[in-house]
């Protein structure tokens, strides 16, 4: 009995080290809209589940929390973020919002202010931030399109956050892009999810421990 007790006591430091190792891993919080919420897709086929599979395959100690909601705007994300930060204590926050702001014609200065506030809130708890930039179709007008796409870079520069300039690069900006989308021509199809992950991964990987 005494020997067993000594063995248990001796093992405690090793257990503590293991727990510390687990605790030292990253938690990635993804706050997005339908592009990250698997809208219209079979569960497990979106770019976020593909990210989880890639992380597992590379044996990276990373927990992924997908807090994306279809139809969400930057205002919605901003209102939801404080509770998410308190609950999950992420080390990395990926912000994939803004597309619905443009689709609804919301003021771009409000979109910019929301993205800036979300970035600041994440940084305040020590998290790194990756902004996923978006673009609008040419029919929105050149000036509007340039201002919209530019606001992501503007926020990233001001807040020293990481930036993926265009989340749907290679999906929406190619010839015959319609084949990369679902019937609504708004949401990428299952075949496009790997490309979306490939766009995100290089920038996200730099932020992981």
From TrEMBL:
Any Pfam family hit: Lipase_GDSL_2
Record CDD domains: Lysophospholipase_L1_like
InterPro entries the record matches: Ester_Hydrolysis_Enzymes (IPR051532), SGNH_hydro (IPR013830), SGNH_hydro_sf (IPR036514)
Signal peptide: 1-23
GO MF annotations, alphabetized: phosphatidylcholine lysophospholipase activity
Coiled-coil regions, chain positions: none
Keywords for the protein's UniProt record, in alphabetical order: Signal
The protein's name: Arylesterase
Species of provenance: Polaromonas eurypsychrophila
Lineage: Bacteria, Pseudomonadati, Pseudomonadota, Betaproteobacteria, Burkholderiales
């Amino acid at each position: 009995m005494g020997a067993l007790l000594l063995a248990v006591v001796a093992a405690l430091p090793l257990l503590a080290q293991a727990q510390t190792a687990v605790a030292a891993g990253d938690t990635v919080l993804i706050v997005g809209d339908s592009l990250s919420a698997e809208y219209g897709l079979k569960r497990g086929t979106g770019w976020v589940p593909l990210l989880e599979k890639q992380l597992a395959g590379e044996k990276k100690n990373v927990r992924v929390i997908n807090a994306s909601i279809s139809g969400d705007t930057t205002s919605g994300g901003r209102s939801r973020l404080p509770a998410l930060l308190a609950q999950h204590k992420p080390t990395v926050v990926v912000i994939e919002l803004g597309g619905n702001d443009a689709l609804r014609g919301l003021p771009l200065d409000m979109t910019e202010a929301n993205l800036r506030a979300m970035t600041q809130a994440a940084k305040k708890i020590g998290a790194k931030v990756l902004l996923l930039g978006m673009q609008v179709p040419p029919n929105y007008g050149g000036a509007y399109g340039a201002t919209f796409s530019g606001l992501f870079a503007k926020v990233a520069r001001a807040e020293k956050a990481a930036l993926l300039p265009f989340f749907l690069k290679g999906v929406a900006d190619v010839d015959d892009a319609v084949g990369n989308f679902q019937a609504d021509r708004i949401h990428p199809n299952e075949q496009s999810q790997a490309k979306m992950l490939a766009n995100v991964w290089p920038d996200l990987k730099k932020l992981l421990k």
